[in-house]
TrEMBL record:
Name of this protein: Glycosyltransferase RgtA/B/C/D-like domain-containing protein
Protein's cellular compartments: Cell membrane
GO cellular component: plasma membrane
Pfam family, one: PMT_2
Species of origin: Candidatus Gottesmanbacteria bacterium RBG_13_45_10
Amino acid sequence: MARFKQLWVKILLAIIALACVYAISRLWNLTKLPIFTDEAIYIRWSQIGSRDASWRYISLVDGKQPLFTWIMMVFLRFIRDPLVAGRLVSVAAGVFSLVAMWLLSFELFKSKKISFLTSILYLASPFTLVYDRLALYDSLVSTFSLWNLYIAVLLVRHLRLDLALILGMTLGAGMLNKSSGFLSLYMLPVTLLLFDWQKKHKGERFLRWVGLVIVAAVLSQGIYTILRLSPLYAMIGQKDVVFIYSFHEWIRHPFTFMVGNLRGLFDWLIHYLTWPIFAVSLIPIAICRKLYKEKILLYLWWIVPFLALASFGRVLYPRFILFMAMPLLILASLAIAWFMKRTGRSVLGLAILGILFIPSIYADYFIIMNPLYAPLPFSDKSQLIDDWPSGWGVPEVNRFLTEQSKSSKVSIYTEGTFGLLPYAIEMYQLDNPNVKVHGLWPVPPQPTVQILEDAVDHPTYILFNLTQAVPPWPMQFIAEYQKGNRKDVKMRLFRVVPTQKQTSTLK
């Protein structure tokens, strides 16, 4: 009895430690990395939907499912800073992913040691750290993918109606979040690897599984059908083909882009997981035949969507493979547990752990403390830090506008009508009646009559983000903000100052 209590005390302390490390790693310097284009879009949508019920499906305007923005609408009710509110949705999603990783690894391998190692790998992975701290769909995508797999494993082992109903709900919620949520439904037959074909009445039990899966599938589609309440439902299909080739397009060139896509996807996967973790994730299939079905299930849950994306992907980003990488973390923990069992606390064992974790910890440090130098893949570093989609300068511009608006009415014209500008300005000036935000695209070679009239009446500013060679407007330079490490890409703020001739023309 005393040993039992001691065991549970250790487990409780481990859970508390994991929770503390998660909170610190995900919340410390949460806004150190500036807002970037996609975050600004999703947050602005959520602001609009939270204030006007008729716009709750606003994300469908751009062909994106609304669940992420719906959750953010709730957070915006209680959190003043919209960027913090948006990123906290992903932080919360990461909590559920962490729990799902623990439960899934325990269900598959019946080892608390492996489960805690899996949790540690989740905490330390630069891949999860980056996306658990951004106001993007993808951390929530990973959450639903993990829970779908966990419940599907329970269903194939226990064949219960309540599990089928829960699976239907999590499948439906995942589909309401992003189109990749459908992959969990398509992958359900893979879980038959864990079906016990040795028990009696296997035919009857198999038909029961089929029936339960049909129940889950029908329920998930019933949940997804609520999107048809919006006349913009068809936009989802139109948006999907922007990123994914349709079958009719793919069949004309089935393998033309696959090799190039695979090269890019593997580069992102290895970069984010780090070479040591990726390498050890490939070891479990070779080290022993025990529980090989469970290991094959995890490999298939990674590689099948991975190859499908490589085959059909038209426009790819690293975040698309976040949910696919989660099974590899479980497999890596299995290999690490195997090494630890054989090396113990020897010098060799500690050296192996150092080799495995130091690259992740190194990347994590810079992601949290100094993202300018974080070793991210080029695609993400460009978007988040070093190019025009990143929001360096946005906080300073908003503070400047807020200060100026205390003494007079202010107008600001932004280069862009959708995306980082004007949304990153609108989301902070939403309740400021003295600041009027106007988007421009394209920026005209000379200020319009409306801009000049505003400039004559009150302080009027123009904010350039994409254009580096600004047009010859009559304006006064206010400030510029470098994009990350690139000195050639800057956000620039000017005040419009009409010439006497322009002023007299207006009169």
